[in-house]
Write a structure and sequence with these properties.
Shape: globular
Structural class: mainly alpha
Strand content: under 5%
Number of strands: 0
Distance between the termini: 34 Å
Radius of gyration: 20 Å
Largest sheet: none
Number of helices: 14
Oligomer: single chain
Helix content: over 70%
Order of helices and strands: HHHHHHHHHHHHHH
Length: 305
């Protein structure tokens, strides 16, 4: 009887972990699709500035009003500002502009390469010799994105400028991630996240106002539903699911990132009618292969602990 209850508990725990991982992958992959819908009604920077400010206020209300975490002091404000500039203002600001010239499916593929760029940049900044496997994985991943983009470039569904902006956004995100990892934070994670998002929103606000064109925004159902989706399911729910996965097993958690491009392509085809071709799947296979190769050192580190 004892073994039966153990088996039931094992099944329940693994089912919960599976549902958590799948939910995270789908929600995280849906961000680009929601952004595309939002851009039908609003200017890029205005739309995402509003998202940053709302998400930041919600997170900080939870951190300081409910959890009673302390407010940052002294040099912590400078660190939060630098992190918010790279991780939110520059990364997502450039990303949302790029989204006007590129499909949501391609962005999902490119985002999957972020961990590889972070690893490469970290190695270069720390003056550590970059292994051939790291260079190979980056090259393979970029080749996959370009291969998947090829038929879309032929039909002018995306542009070279969009791909370059997407690459620039990934570089700024990598800089932010490396900076975050190199600091000794004494704040709770939700406090850091809330303030960097809010500060990032305040940084993009002047540019959103400067580039604003009267009459170009329609605050209709597309706008509010897209905004609501990006703030709650993506910025709050998906991030918390990711933290749960990391707490359970940081090494295994990266597996769920592999599914994000797949879900991103499927959702883009289903909701935005973006084409799925043999180039798409071959490019996806190359990107997934690149991420898998690039993550091998993390698996080895996890096994040695």
């Amino acid at each position: 009887m004892g073994s039966f209850f153990y088996y039931c508990r094992f099944v329940k725990n693994n089912t919960t972990y599976l549902l958590t991982g799948l939910s995270f992958s789908m929600l995280w992959a849906s961000a680009s699709i929601a952004g595309k819908f939002g851009l039908n009604s609003a200017e890029p920077l205005l739309f995402f500035t509003i998202r940053f400010l709302i998400a930041g206020v919600i997170l900080l209300a939870y951190a300081h009003a409910i959890k009673k975490y302390r407010v940052p002091t002294g040099k912590e404000w400078l660190r939060l500002s630098i992190f918010g500039a790279f991780n939110t203002a520059l990364y997502l600001g450039i990303f949302i502009v790029a989204l006007q010239f590129i499909t949501a499916g391609i962005t999902a593929l490119a985002i999957a390469l972020n961990p590889l760029f972070i690893s490469l940049l970290s190695s270069l900044l720390n003056k550590r010799k970059v292994k051939w496997m790291e260079w190979g994985s980056i090259t393979l991943g970029l080749a996959g994105v370009l291969l998947a983009s090829y038929p879309l470039l032929q039909h002018e569904s995306i542009s070279i400028a969009g791909l370059l902006l997407l690459g620039l956004s990934m570089i700024t995100y990598s800089v932010g991630a490396v900076y975050y990892a190199g600091q000794k934070w004494m704040l709770e994670r939700v406090t850091i996240n809330g303030w960097q998002v809010l500060l990032g929103g305040l940084m993009t606000a002047p540019f959103a106002l400067f580039m604003h064109q009267p009459g170009s925004n329609q605050f209709d159902s597309y706008f509010w539903l897209s905004l609501l989706w990006l703030v709650v399911p993506v910025s709050i729910v998906a991030v918390n699911l990711w933290l749960i996965l990391l707490k359970a097993d940081a090494v295994k958690a990266s597996i769920w990132l592999y599914l994000c491009p797949i879900f991103g392509l499927m959702l883009s085809a289903l909701l935005l009618n973006e084409p799925l071709t043999i180039y798409t799947w071959l490019g996806t296979a190359l990107v997934l292969g690149a991420v898998f190769i690039g993550q091998q050192k993390n698996y080895a580190a996890g096994q040695s602990r």
